[in-house]
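Notes from the 1:1 (GR / supervisor)

We went over the backlog. Supervisor wanted to see one worked example end to end before approving the batch request, so GR pasted a single chain during the call. The sequence is below; no edits were made to it. Supervisor asked that the structure be written out right there so they could see what the output format looks like.
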Amino acid sequence: MKQSYLEAVSLIERLHRLYLEVIKCELDSLRVRDINNVQALVLYNLGGDQISIGDLTMRGCYLGSNVTYNLKKMIANGYVEQISSEHDKRSSMIRLLPKGLALSRKLDNAIDKHLESLRKRGVTSLMDLVLSLRRLEEFWKSASVQKIRFEMKKR
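Structure output shown during the call:
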């Protein structure tokens, strides 16, 4: 079990990096040069919603990247807009502009093609995998909370 646990952790990281490479290949095939793979993932995770930067950060995994920096680049390239809150000047919302919506749709079509390719290879469901990963996520969350509580009790 220990070997499988450690392999699962390693696979999760490698799969995420490979997925970013797949996104890069999709951007290359679309001849999109003014956005990188991490920014495209951020853009896709935005979807059609208008959300805060904090909520956006919670929606996805952007390893080794600064979401605020990437958002500034996407704003400069016309993919998203940042809307300041009327009530709290420290807070702002992000939403896709037409250029961002168009790219998001193209990425969604690419994902549909990926799923069709998976079906052709015999992968008909990822539900068991998703359930296992959610259990692992809950375990890690509870382990983190327990450690924090333990550290606070020591003080």
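Supervisor's comment: Residues 131 and 137 are 10 Å apart (CA to CA).
Batch request approved.
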